[in-house]
């Protein structure tokens, strides 16, 4: 290895050590000083679990810890899980947290030992032997054991409800270079796969352009020579291919990679719609040879593709970050027919439209993939709310989060930002090309603890809107409901949301949410049993909102004060603790014995039960409330300010787009494809002139024309 290579390796190792130090700091920030090792281990699971959620490796991760012994003193352990409704897999996680300042290495024997403990836990759960000790340890662990036993049992037709077990080992150590991929295994006829997320892999996904692991699919593993394909279209930012994939290969592909192949909104839709399409199943059984004719096929996106010429024409050999954006039901139905019903898929072929998106900019890439998904699903029941990321609401939140500094708090001598992440991975991608000094400065002004993602915001807001049962259904499903709410309330101009006051109130509700999370965690030794923290938090905030509404209808919480303090008062903290204790008792006693508490919390009846619990306002909090009339006037002033800001921003946007040549291209596009009225046409031509500044009304009208033409097919970036 040469001198340059030595320097490069040293730089990479230094970056990895910096990332390791930051990860340890984030873990320790989750727990109070002096906590024990179990609490630190749990904080590590929550921190990394959250990052895997952001990376879409998990969708609804549930941290829960069990350590025990089975027959012949066999070690059993689990640290978290998820049942993926989209592909019927059970994901189980185990942690190896060294918590050392020096970066350590994890070797193969250590990894295999931990996976063995996880597999032993599955065995004891599936057979029911662990039931008593697990139930006594934790309600959530008892529910996990019950889930495994239920899904692993043989169903009608000889299949099992669980498609496969996906085992995850997370560690703050670096995986030894000698460790290659662990081969797939099985347990009682169900495939078991192994994933190790070491510090290097966590760092890699954090610096990915999409904030997620760009999985590479090798199609030659499924079809000899790759998939037959034709180059169908090409532009500066994408290449289009038409491919044909055998039904067996598509089912096997989905069986191996599961819901990771599905674009997020399609995954959410599939998990709630019922995966088995009777029409597709009928065609598989009765007319497999006509499947290609009857079925619309699938649409997919990728960030790169390897297409090679063969004796039989071009073949798609591999694709990076493959995402199925339409055709999730087709894919899942083929896999279910093969796995559960042993149906033959021989002779079945599926057409696939593949769009290889070449954009390197995070926002443009994310936007293009979402738009492809949106328009591919235009004939299906996936609503516009599912593709909400590019809605003006998010752009407004992002804009204000970059310009409004929060007051200094906790003895700090500088102000900070609450960073709103509109596009996935923005926070880390903004730091990817910074020097160490620049990165530290950025993190001081934008602390990770003050990062708000889209799904975080939906949790905060729906909790306050008294929808804790919706929040409890998981991040994606909750996000869709919040998107629908904003879509209805936003109006033509969005003044209700696009103002400084609303942003500050969102942050105040985030502060409340984070406070309750920490309060519940710290109460483990007293009234909190260690289970259902997420449900307790959202129900507590919803109950606070309902207590104020019923006990003091003419008063409201002073969220401006929470923003100014960047913390909550002792009076509010005391009220929240009182509510949380009642919530914890109420939600963990479902109406039917042995009912799954996690599932019970997703039902509106559960919220009705919590809402009906009588809790009085404490005198301390009542004295801090402000009049609803005063808050309403503040809101009215904020909306007026938002209206003025909107006018200014529209003018700025028109001028900015002119610098990009957008209005000239729009005028040419409309002349070819979609004529506009004379007045609008004149405005667009005026906007394309250098130095032209529109009035407020002209700018607003131009933006409306642009949005309308975008919906019809015009692209700003083209």
UniProtKB/TrEMBL annotation:
Residues annotated as domain Abortive phage infection protein C-terminal: 262-589
Give the top-rank taxon of the lineage listed in the UniProt record for this protein.
Bacteria
Tell me where the transmembrane regions lie. Answer: none
- Every copy of the Abortive infection phage resistance protein N-terminal domain together lies at 44-203
Recorded hits in InterPro entries, A to Z, give:
AIPR_C, AIPR_N
UniProt name for this protein: AIPR family protein
């Amino acid at each position: 290895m040469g001198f340059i290579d030595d320097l490069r390796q040293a730089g990479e190792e230094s970056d990895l050590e910096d990332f390791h130090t930051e990860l340890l700091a984030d873990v320790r920030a989750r727990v109070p000083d002096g906590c024990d090792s179990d609490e630190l281990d749990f904080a590590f699971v929550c921190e990394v679990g959250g990052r895997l959620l952001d990376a879409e490796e998990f969708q609804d991760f549930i941290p829960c810890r069990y350590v025990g012994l089975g027959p012949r003193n066999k070690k059993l352990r689990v640290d978290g899980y998820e049942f993926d409704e989209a592909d019927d897999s059970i994901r189980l996680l185990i942690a190896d947290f060294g918590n050392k300042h020096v970066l350590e290495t994890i070797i193969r024997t250590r990894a295999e030992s931990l996976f063995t403990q996880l597999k032993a836990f599955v065995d004891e759960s599936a057979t029911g032997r662990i039931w008593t000790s697990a139930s006594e340890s934790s309600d959530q662990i008892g529910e996990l054991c019950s889930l495994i036993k239920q899904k692993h049992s043989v169903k009608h037709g000889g299949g099992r409800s669980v498609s496969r077990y996906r085992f995850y080992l997370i560690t703050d150590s670096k995986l030894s270079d000698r460790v290659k991929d662990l081969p797939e295994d099985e347990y009682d006829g169900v495939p078991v796969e192994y994933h190790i997320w070491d510090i290097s892999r966590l760092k890699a996904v954090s610096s990915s352009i999409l904030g997620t692991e760009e999985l590479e699919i090798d199609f030659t593993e499924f079809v000899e020579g790759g998939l037959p394909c034709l180059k169908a279209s090409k532009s500066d930012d994408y290449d289009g291919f038409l491919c044909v994939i055998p039904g067996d290969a598509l089912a096997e592909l989905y069986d191996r990679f599961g819901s990771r192949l599905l674009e997020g909104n399609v995954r959410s839709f599939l998990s709630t719609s019922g995966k088995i399409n009777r029409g597709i199943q009928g065609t598989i059984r009765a007319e497999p040879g006509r499947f290609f004719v009857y079925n619309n096929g699938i649409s997919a996106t990728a960030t790169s593709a390897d297409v090679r010429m063969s004796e039989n024409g071009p073949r798609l050999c591999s694709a990076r970050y493959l995402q199925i954006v339409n055709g999730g039901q087709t894919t899942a139905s083929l896999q279910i027919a093969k796995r559960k019903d042993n149906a033959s898929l021989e002779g079945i072929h599926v057409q696939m439209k593949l769009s290889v998106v070449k954009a390197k900019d995070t926002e443009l890439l994310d936007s293009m993939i979402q738009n492809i998904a949106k328009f591919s699903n235009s004939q299906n029941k996936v609503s516009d709310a599912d593709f909400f990321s590019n809605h003006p609401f998010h752009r407004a939140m992002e804009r204000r989060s970059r310009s409004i500094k929060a007051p200094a708090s906790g003895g700090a001598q500088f102000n900070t930002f609450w960073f709103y992440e509109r596009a996935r991975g923005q926070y880390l991608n903004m730091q990817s090309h910074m020097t160490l000094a620049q990165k530290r400065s950025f993190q001081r002004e934008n602390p990770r603890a003050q990062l708000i993602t889209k799904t975080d915001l939906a949790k905060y807001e729906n909790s306050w809107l008294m929808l804790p049962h919706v929040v409890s259904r998981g991040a994606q499903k909750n996000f869709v409901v919040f998107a629908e709410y904003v879509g209805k309330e936003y109006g033509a101009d969005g003044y209700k949301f696009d103002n400084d006051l609303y942003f500050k109130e969102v942050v105040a509700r985030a502060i409340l949410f984070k406070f309750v999370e920490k309060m519940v965690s710290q109460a483990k030794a007293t009234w909190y049993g260690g289970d259902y923290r997420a449900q307790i938090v959202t129900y507590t905030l919803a109950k606070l909102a309902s207590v104020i509404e019923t006990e003091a209808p003419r008063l409201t919480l002073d969220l401006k004060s929470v923003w100014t303090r960047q913390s909550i008062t002792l009076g509010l903290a005391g009220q929240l603790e009182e509510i949380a204790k009642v919530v914890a008792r109420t939600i963990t006693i479902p109406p039917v014995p042995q009912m799954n508490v996690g599932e019970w919390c997703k039902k509106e009846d559960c919220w009705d039960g919590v809402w009906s619990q009588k809790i009085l306002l404490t005198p301390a909090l009542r004295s801090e409330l402000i009049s609803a009339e005063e808050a309403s006037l503040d809101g009215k002033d904020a909306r007026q300010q938002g209206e003025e800001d909107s006018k200014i921003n529209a003018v700025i946007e028109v001028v900015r787009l002119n610098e990009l040549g957008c209005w000239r291209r729009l005028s040419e596009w409309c002349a070819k494809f979609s004529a506009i009225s004379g007045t609008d046409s004149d405005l667009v031509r005026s906007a394309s002139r250098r130095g032209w500044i529109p009035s407020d009304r002209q700018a607003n009208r131009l933006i409306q024309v642009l949005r309308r033409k975008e919906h019809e097919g015009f692209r700003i970036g083209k």
